[in-house]
Amino acid sequence: MNDTKSDYISIKDLLSLPTLSDVTISECGQRSAFVKRTADWERDAYITHIEVHEKGEKTAEVRPGFRPSWSPCSDQLAFMCTQPNGNQLFIQSMKEGKRVQLTDVEGGIALYKWDPTGKGLYYTAPTHTGHHRLHSLDHEERSSLLPVLEEGVHILDFDLSLDGGRIIFLASPGPGADDAHKAELYLLNRFTGVVKKIEESRRLGGQVCMSPEGTHICYTVSREEKDYYRTHIPDSMLEIHDLTTGEREQPLSEVDSTWIPIRWTEQGILVKWQDRTNGRIGLLQPDGNLEPYNHEDGYTLGASISSDGHHLACLKAHPNETPELYVDGVKVTDENALLSSKRISRKKVITWSNPNGETIEGVLSIPEDMERDRAQPLLVLVHGGPNWASFPFQSTSFNDKYPVESFIAKGFIVLEPNYRGSTGYGDAFMKANARNLGIGDHEDIMSGVDALVEQGIVDPDEVGIMGWSQGGFITAFSSIYSNRFKVASVGGGISNWVTNYKTTDLPSNVLSYLGDTPWNDPEIYAKSSPVWYVQSACTPTLIQHGEADARVPVENAHELYKGLKEQGVEVELELFTGMGYSSDHPKVHKRIMEQNLEWFTRHILKKGK
């Protein structure tokens, strides 16, 4: 134990750790920028600003601002800033420091990109129906609507050739959450004004990039036809489309559905993917050859590359650290200095076998001075998704509800299982919870708890479970389906799949996992719903839920509360006004964390065995 360090990081300090995102590097490679989000406790708000670095040294801050992007000449920084009428586009000269507002669009702009020729920018903005249309903006700040697509099409993403002559669009029929999976590709020739729809019978992903010469595009596409995914879990793979010949190639098709194309450069396509608990980036050649930037453990949150492929900036977190900015392989920030004076948990990836003999991974957080000769109280933290995962690094951007460091300080250890359905372990594993939600997840988690008990690490009578969203659903299921857990905390979780199907903003997601509607297959909905097992419930449960959650509506919380209450189970319900999945107010997250800390401490540590 290092006695020079003070206590574990507090809940307030944990929520005060900056969240880094939106990294961008200039074409010359000398300038980079990223967004830093911090908690302003006096205003009870999260504030974003842009941190600018030049030749590895911090040179400026742009306050407020987000989504920065360097001009082709590398001396101007475009960014977005929230105004009373929505997010607007600004530009700041790095030489003069002059800041100019470029747009004043009702409803704000959604996304933008520089014209690669340096003539101006393109941006999307909503119509009165909410559909995003494309506009061009020249250096004289004259904006014009491009007659690219029909009125009823909603642009999700776009990219341009280096000469600005071709624009590729990914667009859906509407702005709703359930419209994205119906997206189509369109190609605009700026010189002729001709728009061509690129026929694709499979489901398209959320990003698209174009080769510098405008002859090829790269995007993600499903393995099967679109209609197949009405009742099956979506998957995706990279596809490269030759616009001249119409030929399509699927490099790396044998791996799982975490690929994201970032930018097509002269050296290849910068892509990002998840490899178990690591987030990696690399350059993909059109022939399928992939050159990873490195093989060390860590998670790359985002990356930006120059058009010639010679300069790269990325945000990366190594195990047990918070993310840092790296430019051309050199670390240029010191965000982890915030943790250097504190004790922090030691996170390591462990494995165990589930009842089917499959290997399951998880992240185990323990104190650096854990007493190895006695069994510890354990808290299981279940990640959401389910197509997501837990990772062994420090970041509140992945967990702003459960104070892992405070749990460690109290004497708990924490297990975060990457149960079936998690990403990074192949498509078969990601789809292994199809029509098996709840029971399959429970088996993976319980086998992890059993493994730690068998090793003598965990006291079987001092185990709690918690999670938000899909993690909340699994927590509700496991704590009701078995009597193994001494206490539970259900955050934003589904308690009844029929209720959720009728009220969620994304009913297609329910269909893809359960395989049919509740009217056609009520049995699978009952089998997967925690409330249908409530008569056997005995676990004291804290229910936390955002009242404005559109994905998992609050009716789920009320139904679970009523069921547990009528069974005589100790239960508390905490609703957060105006909150959806997460809150814009750090004090709300602090309150959520403090409630969980008090709940588990009172029921496990203070009561004893």
Automatic annotation (TrEMBL):
Keyword set, alphabetical order: Hydrolase
Stored Pfam families: Peptidase_S9
Protein name: Peptidase S9 prolyl oligopeptidase catalytic domain-containing protein
PANTHER family on file: DIPEPTIDYL PEPTIDASE FAMILY MEMBER 6, SERINE PEPTIDASE S9 FAMILY MEMBER
Organism: Rossellomorea marisflavi
Superkingdom field: Bacteria
GO biological process: proteolysis
Entries under Gene3D superfamilies matching the protein: alpha/beta hydrolase, TolB, C-terminal domain
Entries under InterPro entries matching the protein: 6-blade_b-propeller_TolB-like, AB_hydrolase_fold, Peptidase_S9_cat
Peptidase S9 prolyl oligopeptidase catalytic domain segment(s): 406-604
GO molecular-function term, one example from the UniProt record: serine-type endopeptidase activity
